[in-house]
Amino acid sequence: MPNAAYIKDVDRLVEQTPLNTVLQHYGLATPDKSSGEHRMPCVFNDECRDSQYGNLTVNLDSPAKLIFAHCCQIRGNLLTLIHGLENGRPPSTDRLRGDEFKAAVVKLKEINGLLDSPTSEAKRSSPVQADSRSEDSPADPPPRNQPLRLEEKTAGLVDLWQECVVDVADMSPPAATYFRERPWLTPEVCRQWKMGYLPRNGRSLLRGMMIYAHENDDDEILSYSGRDVRFDEKWQKWIKAGRPDDKKPNKHRYVKGYHKGLELYGQQAGRLEDRRLKESLGRLGLVVVEGQNDVIRLDTLGIAAVGLCSNRATDEQISKIVRIANRASQGRVILMPDNDEEGETGFQDLLWQLASQGLSVRLAWSRTSHDGRYGGLQPEHLTDEIWQTDLLPSLSRP
């Protein structure tokens, strides 16, 4: 049994750890307030997601961040929440004990930078301690993404995509609906892109989601991300509820330690050398979109695209776009954002940045172009008819 001094140190660390820090670690929405209650989906039981009582409440006024899951009646503190986020199930007894308690404490320390995470390149200074580095101390090395195979603790996840379900007959109802709405996501396409639906009994925190493999230029898997198959439904409910800030749903979830701003989805050099994509690059240029599905959908149409995994590009991504465009498409780029306010705002800045680098940049569409026919659409919504009869002819003109 842990001694009293140990428990006291843990309690102090729990008190000093903001809930925001923990939720950001897992890619979850953070509260927009500092007191009262924060509601979030239950992390202990998948069945709670479909229950009207499926929320979990965190007491922001409690130093221990006391929690209560309304569906499965689980109570605890921040450590209990971390246990649920890590394992997707409640403690094996009425509260955290033994190895479960110790594992949650280790994770709490890692989140605070007191321990190196498996994917970290350098030890971070803790937010609950003063930074003792002097001005003469060497700067931290720039972040980089290591292939999963090079890390002992992640090497076993390289082939996680092979555990994905790609046949709608074997999927959960929400996942099957998601795939049927995107008939171009055939089993062959899923295997080609190393993605699919990871069942809820999967061996990853991304279980119950669509997962995507993120690869480097050499086709090595760097990480995985997940997409909520019920996001569109949740998004519409959120809009109807008046867009409350504390309940905005998250579409994607990224694994901690993966720096998505350093990469482009679909950047594999071998892929862009494919004959049909080289033809697209030579005829139109490199298409830049936001998300993973956008890249995959355009690929099925024979269009060479890369994705930001965001609506805003980082300096590193801009540099990569410039290099690829100069090498493969004579410096020509076509921007195809989601046709919403956020997408257009982010890509307006990207257009300026790329044009300033000497590239020839064109816009494929906007909310007001083409007589406003495509307002609200995303590249993944493209049909062959829209592309062949409307967008391609206009983009093919000099």
Strand and helix order: HHEEEEHHHHEEEHEHHEHEHEHEH
How many discrete structural domains?
Answer: 3
Strand content: 5-15%
Extended strand count: 12
Task: Explain what you see.
Strands 1-2-3-4 form a four-stranded antiparallel sheet. The chain has a four-stranded antiparallel sheet with strand order 5-6-7-8. About 6% of the residues have low confidence. It has 13 helices and twelve strands. It has three domains: 108 residues, no CATH class; 108 residues, Alpha-Beta Complex (DNA primase DNAg catalytic core, N-terminal domain), CATH 3.90.980; 128 residues, Dna Topoisomerase Vi A Subunit, Chain: A, domain 2, CATH 3.40.1360.10. It is an alpha/beta fold and 398 residues long. Strand 9, helix 10 and strand 10 form a beta-alpha-beta unit.
Provide tags for this entry.
elongated, 12 strands, alpha/beta, Dna Topoisomerase Vi A Subunit, Chain: A, domain 2, 398 residues, four-stranded antiparallel sheet, DNA primase DNAg catalytic core, N-terminal domain, 13 helices
Question: In terms of topology, how is this protein built?
Answer:
Elements: H1 4-16, H2 19-25, E1 37-41, E2 55-59, E3 67-69, E4 75-76, H3 78-87, H4 98-111, H5 173-180, H6 187-193, E5 195-197, E6 210-215, E7 221-227, H7 231-240, E8 252-254, H8 269-272, H9 275-283, E9 286-289, H10 292-300, E10 305-307, H11 315-328, E11 332-335, H12 341-356, E12 360-363, H13 384-396
Parallel strand pairs: 9-10, 9-11, 11-12
Antiparallel strand pairs: 1-2, 2-3, 3-4, 5-6, 6-7, 7-8
Helix pairs in contact: 3-4
